[in-house]
Amino acid sequence: MRTQLKHLGIALALALTAALPAVLWNAPAHAQAASLQAAQANYYKNLVDYDFVKQWVAIPPKRGVMLIDARPAARKFNPGHIFGAINIPDDKFEQMKDQLPQDKSMLLIYYCEGPECVLSHNSARKAEALGYTNIKVYPNGYPEWVAKGEFPAVAGAYLKKLIDEKASYMLIESRPKRVVDKDGMIPTAVHISDSEFDKHIDKLPVDKATELIFYCNGLECPLSPSSAAKARKLGYTNVKTYDLGHPDWVKLYGAPKAAAAPDATGGAAKASVKIETGKEKGSVSTAWFERTMKESPGALLVVDVRDQNEYAAGTIKGAVNLPMGEVAQKIASLPAGRPIVFICSTGARSGEAYDTAKLLRPELDIYFLDAKVRFAGDGTFSIVL
Amino acid sequence: MKGKFELNVLALMLCAGAMSAAQAYDADWKRGRIYYRQVCTACHTAELKKPIAPNDRTKAEWAAYFQADKHGKTTVKHYFSSQYRDSIKAKNAAAAKYADLPEKDLIEDVKAFVHKGAKDGDAPAGCN
Fold this sequence. Notes:
The complex is a heterodimer.
Chain A: H1 2-26, H2 34-40, H3 50-56, E1 65-69, H4 73-77, E2 86-87, H5 93-96, E3 107-111, H6 119-129, E4 135-138, H7 141-147, H8 156-164, E5 169-173, H9 177-183, E6 189-191, E7 211-215, H10 223-233, E8 239-242, H11 245-253, H12 286-295, E9 301-304, H13 308-313, E10 320-321, E11 340-343, H14 348-360, E12 366-368, E13 372-375, E14 381-384
Parallel strand pairs in A: 1-2, 1-3, 3-4, 5-6, 5-7, 7-8, 9-10, 9-11, 11-12
Antiparallel strand pairs in A: 13-14
Chain B: H1 2-22, H2 29-48, H3 59-68, H4 82-88, H5 93-97, H6 103-117
Helix pairs in contact in B: 2-6, 3-6
């Protein structure tokens, strides 16, 4: 008995000695701080490395596995997570445990913010307590994933925040034209289909540090990761994908508004409106514009190119906002279904928008209002003569 | 008498010649506006975090700036050169569209634009 215990003791000691270097090998050599050691003391028993996780992250997604990000949503998961991972923050484990699979033998891979983070290990233990039998933790987590060159995947909520805050980014729709014509695009997206990527690189921003977010049809679709890789080859340094893509956006925020999507059903636009031009080349007659906005405003797409504050203070009813500084960058988001009339307060910026749009998309039916406009603030306007 | 008449005609012809030479190129300020925003402003905003608007300077200041032809470590003319436009045209539609314009015409276009949009110009122009 004693000998058996002694052998068991030796075996345990040997096992620990074997296991410890394996854990330490993955930890960066310079980070042997107290906090790291404290974290390691709390590590889950089943640890995996990058190569292990990589084999489970694929398009289309592999069955039989759930990758779980245990970090907080808004600050960590939303701006960047492993492609295909779901978010169950460790402090919300109890409220969200029904998102775990019914099959308790399914492989669960937890990760969080790297060797000093214990959230994934804590969550793994909680899952084990619920009866899950096949749990692994990827201790090097998200920072290593990105360091290995994988693209960050963003959540719909993060994208919505960028759009609402009018941050500096470019959202790129990677699906082909026929899909986009049917589905519309997420607001602010630029259309560069993956198959025609090389033909449209002029639409990408000049500044290669601009945050680029590619999306397509969700986890099954390879187009946006493919385009992301191409963008990186061109030298773009801040490239991400919106992994859940267009279907997720529609689920969260509804389908794109008819005005933003290319004209598919073409009700009002079928009766093609006759444009009366003004004195300046590319301009419309002010009298004609006033009449048309009264009688058939839907016949035109009015684009207000003043900045967002001016637009918010009062524009023409039905006008969309595209500040002049962003016209070139977002030119692809202008739909082709109706004549477009650029407006501003004096005819200067709208004239520049006209010249710029004509340069970049000569096929569009575009004009500008060359006039001083007073915006009442309630959607009505008057032209100052 | 005859000699004086011929001298006057000669003088008139010389004047007309000089005037037409000066008016030989009619600067296209609208083209200058496009080039300025799409090529110059993109970098100013990226490097300086804010654009340089035409109405940031007076007409005299703009004229002096072009005259001095200094731009950081290089020259202003560099950013109008065919080589520069060729180097960025893959990603810049304005540079591509205006790739074949003579450099001096393009400079005149932008000069005309900033002149018009200067603090004391006909139509002071900001960037938004």
